[in-house]
Amino acid sequence: MTGARTAELPGPTTAGPLAPHHAATAACAIPGTPLDFAKAGIDACVHCGFCLQACPTYLALADENDSPRGRILLMRGLVEGTLAPDDPTVRTHIDRCLGCRGCETACPSGVPYGHLLEATRATIPGRHPFVARTVLVAFRHGWMLRPILAGARLLRATGIARLLSRLPGPLGFAMAMLDSTRQSLPHRTYEPAGDGSRGRAAVLLGCVMEGLFGDTNRATERVLAVNGWAIADAPGQRCCGALHAHAGDLDAARELARANVRAFEASGADTIAVNAAGCGAMMKEYGMLLAADPEYAERAAKVSARVRDISELLALAGPARGGPVDATVTYDAPCHLQHAQRITAPPLAVLAAIPGLTLVPLVDSDQCCGAAGIYNLVEPEVSNAVLEPKLANIERTGAKLVATGNPGCLMQIGAGLQRAGSRATTIHPVDLLDASYAASLPNASNPAAR
Amino acid sequence: MVAPPERSLVALRAPLYLEKVSTAAVIASLAETGPDTRPELAPADIASTAKRLAAIVGERRVLARPAELFTYTADGLPGYRKQPALAVFPGTRDEVVAVVRALAEAHVPFVARGAGTGLSGGALADHVVLVGLQRLTRILDVDVDNARAVVEPGTVNAVISRAVVGHGLHFAPDPSSQAACTIGGNVAENAGGPHCLKYGVTLNHVHALTVVLPSGEIVALGNPAGESDGYDLLGAFIGSEGCFGVVLDATVRLSRDPQAVRTLLADFTDVDDAARAVSGIIATGIVPAALEMMDNPTIRAVEASVYAAGYPADAAAVLLIELDGLAAGLDTDVERVASICRDARARGVRIAADAAERARLWQGRKKAFGAMGRVAPHLVVQDAVVPRTKLPETLARIREIGARHGVTVCNVFHAGDGNLHPNIPYDASNADESARVERAMGEIMRACIDAGGTITGEHGVGLDKIDYMPLVFSDDSLATMCQLRDVFDPERRANPMKVVPIHSCREWGPHAGHRRGEAHESSGSGYAHDDVGVATSDAPLGTAAGAVADGAVAPRRAAPAVREETARIRDAIAAARDAGTPLRIAGAGTWLDAGRPSSATTMLELRDDAIVEYNPGDLTMTARAGASLAALGQAARANGQFLALDPFGGDRGTLGATLATASAGPLAHAFGTPRDNVLGVELVTGRGLVARGGGRVVKNVAGFDLTRLAIGSWGTLGVITEATVRLRAMPEHDRTLAIALAADARGVAAALERLRLLPLAAWSMEVVNGTVAAALGLDGGRSWLLARIAGNEPLVRAQAGTLAALGDTAAVDAAVWQRLRTIEPADAAVARVSTLPSAMPALLGDALPAGALPDGTMVHATPSRGVIRCIVPHHALGDLRHAVGRARRHPSAPLTWIWERLPADQWPALAPSPVASRLARRTRDSFDPAHILNPGILGEATA
Fold first, then answer.
1. CB of B905 within 8 A of CB of B861?
2. For residue A111, what are the domain limits?
3. A82 and B70: CB-CB below 8 Å?
4. Would you call the peptide bond into B109 cis, given omega within 30 degrees of 0 as the criterion?
């Protein structure tokens, strides 16, 4: 029986999941859409269902429509034409996805789920509530964002946020999120003694990080310096575009990406340090985001290749040991660090290097906290359902500090803890390391949690 | 194409539990409705049904729009899509029952679904109601002491193990989908997994189920705290693929974590060498915990994925071997296995150095199916089993078939039990490739059946393999399976059109075949085939069902030739039915005094005692029921093997009698009871049908489990005429030790408590009282523990040392076991009391010491199984009722009494019939409607 030998198997050095022979050759019902271009990824799914137990929305809602496999089937339905792009079912369940990409870690076939989700959202934009849309617009334009964040800081400093956080419903929760951004440990600034021998590092200042966690950004610069990096400025940097990409506004994401590519190229830094997991994941994918842009494709890929999460850099350098910090800490892994960037051990290495710190393991630390960008504004019910088991697990650790390296998570968990009346608060791992370095200075007092 | 149904099933009569309608009447009424039509929820009734269900579970939990149901159109196999009419998701046990009852009232068919990870299309609802159980995830109880847990059906397999990991326990059945699949699904498919080679399948790990029948009746199957008596309806239910009812909760058996584990990876440059290594390992008597093989295409797919495990990418095949057990002697076995691999020309043998490496090696195997998804857009997978000795030639044939059709077959499978999973990645949008894949799959299946195998080892028949059923089962077997289904679901509303192509039992038989797209025409081959043929007419390309329909596999019925004696038995039963003469199945006349007296006086003998087939290389033996256990043992011993059936009560017993009475002996401690050692039976039912259940291979889930049903049925459902049993290899060393126990109750209990915690892997562990001891030639002044330890030298030595800590040990002749089996006097009364193992020390503490029971009473027990056997001499029978009454008030766990022998007049007072339940009576009525087989032997009320 003659016939072309089909389905040639890859050798060990094959390309990724979107190798040419995967291209879905069947006609697409939604030609020209972002999902049409991404549809080859759908074919990698073998329906095994391993992703179900890794999906926070499936665990919370117990409907396969709210599972990665189910959502992939919905995408397939769109591509095949079985489902219409404006079908409310499709929209509801695609909207409900947290984008945590925990399914990618569980998937044996390497389905590029995050990529498919963004393409689908770009194809059928969700109807976001006004607040969410405002947030996206604000983040896109620095001149809008800065006064908004300044106002937020005012609410925080005056204690109004604290007061309003007692209100029920999403407004109260948002105020609790804002209030939780107050630093858990007092920051002592110090002059970092470092020789810059590891090269120049430019720090992504970010939007929420610089606006509400400014002290953490300064701490980031200091700990990098202590561990041997010289800090380079990268003026002209913008929002990383993650929120826009996740929401399906790929045009906005690309515009922001281009601006950042230019800014970080100009900085002359060998390394781009990012202390927000969501932003780091986004920047590492700039190459793919701009792959179709002839002017920026290669430049973006080069910039992406230099992006590192702060924990990666610190783990690489040790990190250097400082003074004791007397605290009981539990670590929660941000989805965009462990699933999107596949970084699991470095943050624990950073915490383990702090003398006097008791690290208690957190059950299900690999499950999403429900923040997911602006998800907690868009899907407050599900976000809360996902947050609840996380809070319960934190409670069981008895830790006073919950360390996590992403602002969304810091605020989501922080707000949840506060409204649950817990005495625990959230903290960025970098802040703990910074406090450790501060404590090693003469006349330092042992920093205790507030 | 078949015309749409003229009337829906609403026309059927009311469910059995509401009305006293006999099974026979229902079956007759089904025949009256004419040619079967595809059961469905009529479109006109969808809205009202949805409303009724929403009233039970809430509106949010009922899905009715096609867009919402789209996700539920497929299970683990992407090739099949069936649209449900509705989907309902009950959240509690009460809601499940209410939903089932609501559907029963409206006569609506339904399909239960767990996580939808099945690989046979079993969870697909074709225009009927889908009942999703994924919300029932609670672990209701964990009994660490007795290593059992009660869980809801939606509990994920891996979650059970995770919940008990801190106690050194785990749930043994480990299908590759265990991270997602649910217990309800495992029960429905009788799921296996790599570790089932040593530890068994789901059937061996479920103590009891609470089930709601499609009629809405709730029944308890099995016994959560002791032995089960009566028909093994639990065994029949496990593997029934959702066709018998819905599980409400399962009492599962947990296993102790092994003391030590070693994982090896051997790579070969020739697949045949790997297959030879497999046979070599099995032949030594070493039972690996897992023995998996992957061929080159699979290895390359895995190594190209993110789960790369370090398999050599140029190896023709790799074997992933895991050995576990007591640490002592494990490395000896590891060395032995490694050298067997090297002798079979393994290029390299690597032993995992630590837990991380072990995890990585397994990762590659567990994610192999998913890794295949990276190779091409679509995938078909099969699940055939062949006898182990046929592996090399079958693999060669598969290679040849693949080459001839120009498709790549990736083999990943459980080599230890011959369970193959040929996977073919392809692109379904390429019509030519699809056709070639379809033909290749059909030929592969045919090759496996020809090699003496079966069509499904663990994935189930479902939808995917329904058309292969007639190739492995005769019309009589399929009809009998229908009759079993009718016991549980006479309206055929639970998972309709799956497993057995059902028409109506009475109409089952050869009739016109059906080719896709063409009108009815006779195939001329006598190919028995379901008229509606939903599996064939809608079978997507590239599926097994499609292959058969397309004529890629020439339809061929399973050989119906029967042996002379089977024909004689069949004719005798038919004659007895006509004449209304009940029969006493006498077999070889060896155990006529067992059980209750039967009112039948006409004896039916079984004289054929031949060994029909014995493949030492496969460790399986097929023998006629009249063969004595002694003869079978002798034949096995000549090949260094043995049969682990050693029932108490004598060695003269035949295979048939042993199975019919489900009698167990000392070896049950390690090897289980008859139901755990039989692979298949031939059963001539009370209707005169010659049915076969199971097969001749060690792993088989094809069809409903007639084998389990036959075992322990005491001849009231049919005459077992033949059985295939699994054998085991004799060990290097085999020692029996006798350890003296204290004389007082407290001392005995304390010793037995200590015994429970000792790390041992004994073959038998029996506790005997002084009376028994004296009969065995030991000091009759105390109780004794008899332990049989076997295996390699270090293992035996270590265990002997461990046992010595309990008390004075003395080596005794192995003949003591034989004597133990035959000590009971002919006129004694014999009873078994069973309970939870944790209650045994205290109970035995009370029962063993001298004077605890009437003088001369013999007591022996298998503490691990929670079974105590009491042999009461004739002169003490007067006290019997008193003693039993006293024991029944014993303050401990629940006691289950099973009587083996009693004076005729004592039965009614002491022993209620174990088949008095409605379900048991329906079983009897279905298999032997005229009640001519052994009437009265189980104490059932004669109709």
1. no
2. 27-123
3. yes
4. no
Q: How buried is residue B565: exposed, middle or buried, by Cβ count under 10 Å (0-12/13-18/19+)?
A: buried
Is residue B730 within 8 Å of residue B641, measured between CB atoms? yes
In a domain, A14, yes or no: no
Q: Is A427's pLDDT higher than 70?
A: yes
Give the E-state strand segments of B64-103 in sequence order.
86-88
Supply the CATH number for residue A92's domain: 1.10.1060.10
Please report how many Cα atoms fall inside a 13 Å half-sphere around the Cα of residue A173, on the Cβ side: 18
Rg (CA), chain B: 27
**Would you tell me how many other CB atoms lie within 10 Å of the CB of residue B511?**
17
Would you identify the CATH topology of the domain B734-910? Answer: Vanillyl-alcohol Oxidase; Chain A, domain 3 (3.40.462)
Q: Identify whether A224 is part of a domain.
A: no
How many Å apart are CA A80 and CA B123, to the nearest integer? 23
Phi, psi at residue B69, to the nearest 5°?
A: -90, -10
CA dihedral B139→B145→B146→B151, nearest 10 degrees, is 0
Segments of chain B scoring below 50 in pLDDT = 1-35, 504-556, 943
Q: Residue B327, SS3?
A: coil
Q: Is 3.40.50.150 the CATH number for B139-256?
A: no
Distance CA B715, CA B587 (A): 10
Q: Find the CATH number of the domain harbouring A380.
A: 3.40.50
**B307: chain A residues, CB-CB within 8 Å:** 108
CATH topology of domain B564-729: 3.30.465
What confidence tens digit (pLDDT) does each residue in A13-39 have?
233 332 223 334 557 888 888 899 888
- Hey, what are B15's tokens? 């469910």
Amino acid of residue B374: R
Please state, as a whole number, how many other Cβ atoms lie within 10 Å of the Cβ of residue B162: 13
B561-603 pLDDT, tens digit per residue, is: 789 999 999 999 999 999 999 999 998 887 788 889 888 989 9
Q: Which residue has the higher pLDDT, A139 or B57?
A: B57
Last residue of a domain, one of A90, A123, A156: A123
Put simply, the chain A residues between 385 and 404 with a CB less than 8 A from any chain B CB are none
Q: If phi over 0 gives left and psi between -120 and 50 gives alpha, with beta otherwise, what is residue B882?
A: alpha
Residue A132 forms part of a structural domain? no
ipTM for the whole predicted complex goes beyond 0.90: no
CATH of domain B260-450: 3.40.462.10
In order, the DSSP letters of A244-299 are HHHHT-HHHHHHHHHHHHHHHHHHT-SEEEE--HHHHHHHHTHHHHTTT-TTTHHH
Instruction: Give me the number of domains chain A comprises.
Output: 2
Count of beta carbons in the 10 Å neighbourhood of residue A72: 25
Nearest to B577 by CA among B761, B718, B749, B420: B718
- DSSP tag of B5: P
- Residues 26-85 on A with a CB inside 8 Å of B are 26, 43-53, 62-65, 67, 69-70, 73-74, 77, 82-83
- CATH 3.30.465.10 domain extents, chain B: 139-256, 564-729
Instruction: Give B438→chain A minimum CA distance, Å.
Output: 14
Q: Could you tell me which residues come within 8 angstroms of residue B48 by beta carbon, excluding any fewer than 6 positions away?
A: none
Chain A residues in contact with B183 (beta carbon < 8 A)? none
Q: Which residues contact B903 (CB under 8 A, 6 or more apart)?
A: B829, B877
Tokens of A329: 């800490």
Q: Do B72 and A64 touch (CB under 8 A)?
A: yes
**Taking a C-beta distance cutoff of 8 angstroms, is the pair A354, A433 a contact?**
yes
Element (H, E) at B757: helix B745-757
Quote the CA–CA distance of B860 and B784 in Å, as a whole number: 9
